Amino acid sequence: MAIQFTSHEVKDYLKEKRKLKSFLADLFATEGQGLQSLHYVFCSDAYLLEINKQFLQHDTYTDIVTFEMGEDPSITEGEIYVSIERVLENAEKFKVPVNQELHRVIFHGALHLCGFKDKSKKEEVLMRNKEDEYLKKYFGEL
């Protein structure tokens, strides 16, 4: 199992990468999802917008785009693109530390790969609860 973090033309805000890799492996195990490989790419709004247009035909800014690359639905081989600009803006908007918002988005992408959706109101509530659960496990009480 390999988990990688790459910054593409943006500042690297991620600390304690070894701890996070271990935590993400535990998240997948807890959710009953196999994990072969996972690559996070932290990038700019412009870079993620191009990915959103090219692969999803969405002409909108977003904080995250998640791709399952593998053929076996029970074993994740994923790529997750995160806009650092959106993370910084959302941290300010929601008045939370940047590190907390960054990890929320990281866990959000992992949860998508574990099968969680957020299209309906019910799915969105479950996703937020799961994000909060993992944020509390990772950081302790917030």
Task: Compile the SSE list and pairings.
Layout: E1 2-7, H1 17-30, E2 34-43, H2 45-56, E3 64-68, E4 75-83, H3 84-93, H4 98-113, H5 121-139
Helix pairs in contact: 3-4, 4-5
InterPro entries: MetalPrtase_cat_dom_sf_prd (IPR023091), YbeY (IPR002036)
Keywords: Cytoplasm, Endonuclease, Hydrolase, Metal-binding, Nuclease, Ribosome biogenesis, rRNA processing, Zinc
Subcellular location: Cytoplasm
- How far apart, in Å, are the first and last alpha carbons? 30 Å
CATH architecture: 3-Layer(aba) Sandwich
The low-confidence parts are none
The CATH superfamily name is Metalloproteases ("zincins"), catalytic domain
Structural class: alpha/beta
Shape by Cα distribution: globular
Q: How would you characterize the largest beta sheet?
A: 4 strands, mixed
- CATH fold-level assignment: Collagenase (Catalytic Domain)
Subcellular location: Cytoplasm
GO molecular function, one term: zinc ion binding
InterPro entries: MetalPrtase_cat_dom_sf_prd (IPR023091), YbeY (IPR002036)
Cofactor: Zn(2+)
What does this molecule look like?
The protein has a single domain, classed as Metalloproteases ("zincins"), catalytic domain (Collagenase (Catalytic Domain)). Helices cover 50% and strands 21% of the residues. It has five helices and four strands. The protein has a four-stranded mixed β-sheet, with helices on both faces. Helix 3 packs across helix 4 and helix 4 packs across helix 5. The longest helix has 19 residues. The model has no long low-confidence stretch (mean pLDDT 95).
